[in-house]
Amino acid sequence: MTLPPGSQPLISVVVPVYKEENSIRPFLNRIEPVLENIDGNYEIIFALDPSLDLTENIIFEEIDRNPRIKLLVFSRRFGQPAATMAGIVYCSGKTCVVIDVDLQDPPELIEPMYKKLQEGNFEVVYAKRRSRQGETLLKRCIAHLGYALINKISDIDIPRDTGDFRIMTRRIIEELARLNETHGFMRGLVAYVGFKQTCIEYDRGPRYTGSGHYNRFIGSLKIGLNGLISFSARPLFLMSIVGLFFSGFSFIVGGIYVLQKLMGVPLSPGLSTTVLVVTFFSGIQLLALGLMGEYLGRVYDEVKNRPMYIIDKKINFDNK
User: Fold this and answer.
1) Which of 87, 150, 274, 294 would be a feasible disulfide site paired with 14, CB 3.0-4.6 Å?
2) CA-to-CA distance for 304 and 150, rounded, in angstroms?
3) Are the CB atoms for 302 and 181 separated by under 8 Å?
4) Which has the higher per-residue pLDDT, 279 or 41?
5) pTM of the entire structure?
């Protein structure tokens, strides 16, 4: 089925990709029958961070086979959050699905997600992970602790054990397009927008092929830190409380030393204690400065007002 020019698809599927030459065709082989079974009125938008492999060439070949496939190519690598947001901004469907190409998130789940979206009059249906196959124990622990910490001190409630895999209505798409934020933490932004949301649980499988292209430990920490700092100023308040506590503690210790001196009690020499105390408080100070720097860095990025992404090529779009 080929859509008439200018017609609005029922479903847009946004797929951020980078160095995924071996995943494109297996992904399309699984998702296209699902979309055909729902309606056949769809578009698939690959948002490509440029790479030296054959990912772009393979997508071009697939566009020749299926004109409902579209491609955004960026001027350089801007990262997955920016690629995802670009796909959402450029999609034209009545609903939008965000999914990774590695097949850890099963495309077959899109149909029950779409039905739940329609039947319950929801604006968002997100996929919640019951289990995480193919993920290390360290990454699972970081994810669990990260969600717990974010929801404890954040100003919004971000659903636990979720990623970017979800389906959204046009209403959510338009609200997200209004949020011109450099650090796009998608699951946090969708939670911030609000409206009626629900979930479908599933078991997340391992990657179809290869491995992810970001450091599992550092990448997870960056995502968690971004979610924490982007949606709450409470860490700054907590650091003020910590500073107040240790200042009071230092005054008490100083008072004890003064009393010992006045009472003629010999002060025990303690070079090692002095070094320990100095290094401890220095660590606290550096932690506070680092936290302030994270907030200041984000303010700096937003004040510059640079675009979140720059597009080099738009393939198969109708002059959008």
Assistant:
1) 87
2) 27
3) yes
4) 41
5) 0.73
